Amino acid sequence: MSFEKTPGWLDWYAGPSKPRFQLPPGSVDAHCHVFGPGDQFPYAPERKYTPCDASKAQLFALRDHLGFARNVIVQATCHGADNRAMADACRSSGGKARGVATVRRSVTDHELEELHAAGVRGVRFNFVRRLVDFTPKDELMEIAGRIKALGWHVVIYFEAVDLPELWDFFTALPTTVVVDHMGRPDVTKPVDGPEFALFLKFMREHPNVWSKVSCPERLSVSGPRALNGEQAAYRDVVPFARRVVETFPDRVLWGTDWPHPNLKDHMPDDGLLVDFIPHIAVTPELQRQLLVDNPMRLYWPEESR
Ligand SMILES: O=C(O)c1cc(C(=O)O)oc(=O)c1
Fold it and tell me: What's the CA-to-centroid distance between 305 and ligand 1, angstroms?
């Protein structure tokens, strides 16, 4: 099947620079996606956007170029609950990729076991309205109960303004809970203000809650962008990510978010995104926890120290 990209779609950045920051050995890119290719793994009829293709081979080439050892491939909403592209990428990785799936209540135990065998270790619940239609919370809670039995966790994606309303649901989840992109703070608000304080309280009061300190390119309002060799990109996001890393050093993850779905104004150079990391994890110890120890404990516990 051939697909036409959403008008204005920005393709991922070809020819990223080599990072200046040297990733610690064994680093994990714990949030990235594959898109299609659409002729092999068609995009879902219920999708809200149609991306460019971004194949497993292209993802693995980026991994090697940037110096990561492993990937966690998160089901992208353009594939709905059809996990074939993500699972195929995990299976093809030679054990170097784990996955996070999207499933419906109708998923069978056998399908869950097959996803587990492919390398899936979590499910994603999405509450960002421009990306998905609403799934009833009782359905999500039922899924959470089933995947807990497999030792999986729940990844949640939501925007900061929606946290108060979702609080009771999130805090009732029975598994480890991983928040995508710090719950999308509005970085024009103060890092010490009430909105971000609620997010920090969410993590502080719930030791099962982790956060990805990813996506500065999405959260930044004033930049500068990770382009043209910029070594001090996305300054406005730094205080937020740094606060989370330093407050919860053993519950943070980092990922490129390649191929960066739905960015509207620019597409970052992924090499420069890696150079963002030492601005938010400022010591070798914090960097090792963020990039190696934490993702290994969550996704490869059998290999973790
Ligand atoms: O903000 C987004 O548009 C976005 C979309 C998706 C997805 O479509 O799965 O994943 C992300 O991590 C971020």
Answer: 32
257 an active-site residue? yes
Q: How many domains does the chain have?
A: 1
Q: What is the DSSP letter of 1?
A: -
pTM over 0.95: yes
How far is C-alpha 148 from the geometric centre of its chain's CA atoms?
A: 20
Q: Return the CATH number at 81.
A: 3.20.20.140
Task: Given the residues 82, 180, 257, 275, select the one marked as catalytic.
Answer: 257
Distance between Cα 54 and ligand 1 center (Å): 14
- The radius of gyration computed from the CA coordinates of the chain, to the nearest angstrom, equals 18
If one counts every other C-beta atom within 10 angstroms of the C-beta of residue 134, the result is: 8
**Distance of alpha carbon 276 from alpha carbon 179, whole angstroms:** 20
Q: Look at ligand 1, atom 4, and give the residue with the nearest C-alpha.
A: 261
pLDDT at residue 303, as a whole number: 94
Residue 36 has what pLDDT?
Answer: 97
DSSP bridge partners of 153: 122
Asked, for residue 2, whether it belongs to a domain, the answer is no
Dist CA 260 CA 229 (whole Å): 19
- Cα end-to-end distance, the chain, whole Å: 45
The yes-or-no verdict on residue 291 having pLDDT over 70 is: yes
| pLDDT tens digits along 239-263 | 999 999 999 999 999 999 999 999 9
- Ligand 1 atom at minimum distance from 130 CA: 3
Q: Which atom of ligand 1 is nearest to the CA of 76?
A: 9
Taking the CA of residue 74 as reference, the ligand 1 atom at the shortest distance is 9
Q: What are phi and psi of 242, to 5 degrees?
A: -65, -40
Residues 103-138: tens digit of each pLDDT: 999 999 999 999 999 999 999 999 999 999 989 999
ipTM above 0.90, yes or no: yes
Residue 266 has pLDDT above 70, yes or no: yes
Q: Report if residue 11 sits inside a domain.
A: no
